[in-house]
Amino acid sequence: MTSSEKRFRTIAIVEGWSFVILLAVAMPLKYAAGIPEPVKYVGWAHGLLFVAYCALLLQVWLESGWKFSKALLAFVVSLIPLGTFWFERKYLK
User: Fold this and answer.
1) What is the pLDDT along the chain (93 residues), one digit of tens a residue?
2) Which residues have CB under 8 Å from 70's CB, separation 6+?
């Protein structure tokens, strides 16, 4: 595993957790408890992590010789809750 793949694996896990926290903690706090601040901050962090995920995905795709279909799958699963965990376990271990 190359160093860029290791960084991508790490960011995939962190980005996945930020998505879970956004959906499972921050959104219920906003809509059920009327506390909108967590969505602002967790959403901001998740957005930065998603951009980093996409940038590292592009880097890994170009440097590691991944097929386009694998890179596309990595992008698509990042849009699905828990998708990055599945991709990390199946393709990055």
Assistant:
1) 789 999 999 999 999 999 999 999 999 999 999 999 999 999 999 999 999 999 999 999 999 999 999 999 999 999 999 999 999 999 987
2) 61, 91
How many domains, the chain? 1
Orientation of helix 83-91 relative to helix 3-21, angle to 10°: 150
Distance (Å) of CA 26 to CA 12, 30, 46, 52: 20, 6, 11, 21
User: In this structure, what are the phi and psi dihedrals at residue 30, rounded to the nearest 5 degrees?
Assistant: -70, -50
Domain of residue 69: give its range: 3-91
